[in-house]
Amino acid sequence: MGPPTTSTSNTHANFRTMVSEYIEDAVSGEPMRKAVTLVPCGHTFDEDTVIQCLASKKLCPLDRQPIEKYVRNYAIRQLADAVAAHPSEEELMAEAQAHFLRGKELCEKGKQEAAIEALLQALRLSPSLASISATTVQDFSSVAMVSLYREILHFHFPEESENLAKKAPILDKIYNIGSGLGSEAKVPLIFESLFKQAQSLSPLEFESKNLKNEPFTLANYTSYLLNINRLLLWQKLPAGEDYLSQPEIKALTLKQKGELLKAWIKEHGKNISELELGDTGLTFLPPEIKHFSQLQKLNLSINQLTVLPASIGQLSQLKELWLKSNLLTTLPSTLGQLSQLKGLDLSRNQLAVIPAILGKLSHLKAFWLDHNQLTTIPATLGQLSQLQWLSLSYNQLTDLPVEIKRLDRCTTVLNGNPLKAEGA
Q: Which of 81, 115, 138 is the last residue of a domain?
C-alpha cells in the first residue's frame, strides 16, 4: 500500500514539532513514557503530572473537569519509548511527513489508534528509526487493540497492574466473550456490547447515529460505561423509570441523561435512606454514590462490579452493605470509614486480600466472606468486639489469627478450607 496522498511542503518536517502533540505532556513538555488517560475527560498526561494534580485540586489541567481516576495508556507509552530511543532524529523525509499529517487528521477525528499507526509509519521511513519492526507497523491496528484491551482491564482492575492478564477471564465474563480469542478480537466485541446496551437505554439517540463511526478509544469506553451505569442506577431510584419515560427526557442523549442524573443526585440524594440495586446489571458504580449521604442500606448484590469507588467511604450513615455475587478482586481502604456498619456481605466475589483497616468497623455484627480466594485474614478483625457472625467458608485458609479465635461472642464458619490441624 502506497503512502497517504496528503500534500506536503518541500521542506522537511521538524520531527519534534510534529510529534509533540502526540507524545509530549501538555504541562511538563516531556515525552509521556508513563502516559495515563484521565477518567472521565479522556485527556492524556504523564503519570507524574496527574499525581501532582491529584495532590492539589484534582482537576484536569486542560478542561478543569474533576479527575475520578486514571488508567495507563499503553499505545502512547509505546510511541514515546520509540521516539525517546532516537533523540537525535530531527528531520523526516517528505513521505514520512505525509504520514505525520495524516496522523494529525485522524487524531482530530478522534481515531487515536489509526493516528498512532500513521505516526509509526513515519518513524519507520526515517533511516535512523529502521529498528522499528515491520510487524509493529503493519500490524499496529492489532497492537493498538491489544493496548486498548489492557487499558480497559486496568480501568476495571486499577490495583492489579502486576497481575493484569490474570484478570482477563473476569472481564470476558462481563461481556460474554468466549475463551480462545486474542485481545485484538475482544475489543470490537466489548464495544458492540456497550453500543447495544446504550441503544436500549437511549433508543431515540441511536436511530440516526452510525455506531460504525464511533472510534474505539478508552475515553469512549469509559464515557459509555459510566453513563450506561448511571441510567441503570436511575431506573431503580424512586419514580426513576417514570421520569426517564417522559418524552423530553427520552429525547436527550445518553451523555445528557447521565449528566442530568449527576445533578439530580446532588440535590435529592440526601433524601434517600435505602437503595435496592441488586441484580440490575451494574458493571461500574458511579462515583455520585457519595451524594446519598443519609443512606443506611445499600444492596448491590448479584451484579458484575469489579471495583468500588473510594467515595463509597463517604456514606457515613450506612448500616448495611450487601455486595454478594459480584466480581470484586480488591476493596478500597475507605470501607474502613463506614463506622456505623452492622452488616457487610462480600461473599462470592474474587477477593484474595481483606484490608486490615476493616478492623475499625467497630459496630459490625455480621460479616460474610465465604466463597472468595482468601489465604489469610488480617488479625485486625479481632478488634471487631461486636461481631456475632463471621462466615469464612470455602476459601483457601490454612490457619486463623489467634485474635479472631478470641472473639468468644462470634460464631465463625470455616468449612471448606484446608485448615491445619490444631497443634500441627
A: 138
- Residue 70's domain comprises 13-138
- Does residue 57 form part of some domain? yes
Cα dihedral 275→280→282→285 (10° resolution): -10
Measured distance CA(384)–CA(409) in Å, rounded: 10
CA-derived radius of gyration, the chain? 25
286 inside domain: yes
In the chain, the number of structural domains is 2
Final residue before a domain boundary, out of 138, 172, 191:
138
* 338 neighbors 358 (Cβ within 8 angstroms): no
**The dihedral sign for the CA sequence 153, 222, 326, 288:** positive
Cα 145 from Cα 186, distance rounded (Å):
8
| Residue 133 within a domain | yes
HEC letters along 336-369: HHCCCCCEEECCCCCCCCCCHHHHHCCCCCEEEC
With cell 487528521, the residue in question is: 105
d(CA 294, CA 314): 10
Tell me which residue has cell 452488616.
343
Please give the model's pTM, rounded to 2 decimal places: 0.74
pLDDT in tens, 302-332: 999 999 999 999 999 999 999 999 999 999 9
C-alpha span between 33 and 35 (Å, rounded): 6
- Per the DSSP assignment, residues forming a β-bridge with 368 are 345, 391
Residue 388: CATH number of its domain: 3.80.10.10
